[in-house]
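User: Could you check the structure of this?
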Amino acid sequence: MSFTARRSSPPMVPQQSAFADERKLSVSIDFGAFPGRAYGSSRIAAGKVQQILNWPGSFETFRKIPTCLLYDQNGQILAWGIEAKNAGPIPGAIKCEWFKLFLEPQALRDESNVDPRLPALPPGKRAIDLIVDFLTCLWDYARQQITREIGAVADLDTADVWLTVPAAWDATGCQIMRDAAITAGLVRSAMPGDNEWRERLHIISEPEAAAVHCAAMTDVHRLAPNQNFMICDAGGGTVDLAVYKVMGMLANLEIAELCARSGANCGSLFLDLRFRELMKTLLADHPVHLDRVSLANFMENFSETEKLRYMGEEDDDKMFHFTCFNVEDPDDPAVGLINGEVTIPGNLLRREVFDPVVNEVLELIEAQTKKVDQRLDALLLVGGFSASEYLFRKVKEHFQARIRVIARPSDCDTATLRGAAQYGLARRPLVSSVVAPRSYMLKVKLPAEPEDWLKRPGYIRENDAGVAICENRQYLVAKGAILRKGQRLKRMFCKFSQTPSDRMFVAVLYTSDSDKIMRYTDEGEIMELCQWTIDLGALPSFQRHASAPTPDGFYTEFELGLELDSAEVRGVLIYQGQDWGRVVFDYRT
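Assistant: Sure, the predicted structure tokens are below.
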């Protein structure tokens, strides 16, 4: 995938801070298996976060709705959210769910890594198309609802929008999400000359947003300055983990990340998928109960009732009953099919459905604790999956001897959504530092040093200027490095141009999950993340040399700046200390 940012240009006027206008509306979207929408402003409800609770398709209130789309056979949207989820069979219609999981890093690198249990995408549509469609529906409805709730025309065209993404996503997935949000119209130019409108869209990691919400409730969790806490954001699709320290005085809340985040696809959705596989196994000889409608009926019964109430070992002797949708073929006691109901013993549900997923969550938490060389004072579970009594009990059993407080904060299912809105309302950075979850590096050609002649003489070549150079790795940031939020990592570069037309510089950005610092390009595995394509033609030094070219060519010196926050990677072209434009990225998927 490719995207275009601002081209090289004269020095950029410093951007207005994202936190400058304290009266501006701030809107947050937690886009997961069950997304929600919150908003706030100092002008509304004394600055408290407000949440949209009324949604199309229901007279009840819902804090979050299913990420579900219903298309007709021509690819047109018939319904979304609750209406799509509850829609009955329609000839030719295609129901789409869980499509956010197609942006998981391994799936983006190789489509064969997509979990085969996920529903296939509709013909001719990509995951980003479905995300754009859903966000468009969500945003159009929210505009109307926010205006209705605050009793005035909401100026959403100038609002800051905060969009959450899983911790395990890399910059490619985050950029796809940003592109989708812009295409869906979440941010747009509000007036002539509004050139920085894209900067009103902020991407924030789910555990960081949840941490902001939880840290603000220090009176509940008895957190004090200099204490450390882990966030386990157990959602529908992913489980994300991060560790933070409470910094400074609580009246001026600030938290700092302590170690690299982690995450995996082991949310509550995977209980549903394992339950579906169990039903297909039990009823393999009774296909009348395995059609699409019947399976959907079984899964809804499990997801809406038994999944969160299930208690584990104490339910081993309990029988769980699931009513069949079809009345034919009502009995086969050998597989628990009796009088039109499938009866499943609790110990079978635990072994085949719950334990494999819950154990994966416990392993993730254990691995995250080992990354921290300081005491953990609290483990806070948030997200929809955290409401599972069995998961919460197993976490307490495994970690209460080491961690003093293990708790689910109030509003745990919407902690990420509310935290993102609180971040926007604060009008200041609440997270002071982040930890690089992986290494970022460039392949560069540097003047050969004695070590290169000794270790990699085959890598050494003469460039056009007759200088011996060696292909190396230049680290912009190593995995685990602690960075100030928004800190810019700068490196000086020099391009040789034989003629004035040779003005483009292409740098390839790579990532590595290794903790080892590697000098040469053949040491260890690296993955190509994106290309930076830079037009140097507007720089004064290039123009000066280009206006009086010589047969020997000329050099142009410049800097590249890399900015990392909790979710995104941004690049800036710098010349003599001034920003000269955003770099054009070309993401490799």
